[in-house]
Amino acid sequence: MAKYVVLLGSPGAGKGTQADILTKETGLAHISTGDLFREHIAQKTELGILAQSLMDKGEFVPDDLTIAMVKERISRADCEQGVILDGFPRNPVQADATKLMLNAMGSSVSVVPYIIVPEDVLIQRLSGRWTCRNSGHVYHTMFSPPEKEGICDLCGAELYQRVDDTVETVKKRLRIYMERTSPLIDYYRKQGKLVEIEGDQPIDSVTKDLLATLKK
Ligand code: ADP
Ligand code: ADP
Q1: 3-118+176-215 has which fold?
Q2: What lines the ligand 1 site, CB under 6 Å?
Q3: Side-chain half-sphere of 9: how many Cα atoms within 13 Å?
Q4: How does pLDDT run across 113-134, given as a tens digit for each residue?
Q5: What is the average pLDDT across 202-216?
């Protein structure tokens, strides 16, 4: 049976980093709404142009557009075994839409690992995050530096710092997360699907805990 994993956690908790590793280990597809929007921005689509002005300010892209984008992505062949949702759902409306979407496919959310990291660590992580323009792979100046400064180990493309990773916008995103996304913690806890994961550990230790949770 297909597995549908919702990775919960603040911006900077390590969702993208872990989802990339877990995809390789499990064969599940990785759907990151942030990455999908950044692809639209790079391709200058209508959605990309709209998303960019909101994302740069740390604000959400409207629910209807986000939900439609995920619906299309999750119906593709590489999602047959299941997916890891990263950055979606991000509020109760999107969580209800996820339920409907999966029910229509004869399925439901399997498990919700919630990666917990203290706020000072989140700010330190986001302010040192460098992202590959081509592969979207993330690095950190201190915690997981690339072999060659400014260059992606995987594809050799240039690394950049996201406009929304400045301290001011990071603080706003953390506030919005608390207001709009954190209600999902209780939403999934009530359904018995939430599993708390200690996120303030080295990357490979977090992966180990996540893999143990996914195997259950
Ligand atoms: P998210 O997708 O939740 O916003 P990322 O995976 O992009 O988080 O990680 C944010 C930053 O923190 C990146 O620079 C990444 O390299 C770094 N990072 C991720 N996990 C860890 C960890 N366990 N320890 C130290 N740094 C980490
Ligand atoms: P992070 O991993 O640091 O939380 P993301 O890459 O997930 O950042 O998201 C970057 C931005 O993309 C968000 O601040 C928001 O503007 C937009 N975004 C991503 N996912 C969603 C979503 N599910 N709903 C609305 N906006 C989203």
Answers
A1: Rossmann fold (3.40.50)
A2: 9, 11-17, 125, 128-129, 138-140, 143-144, 202-203, 206
A3: 31
A4: 999 999 999 999 999 999 999 9
A5: 96
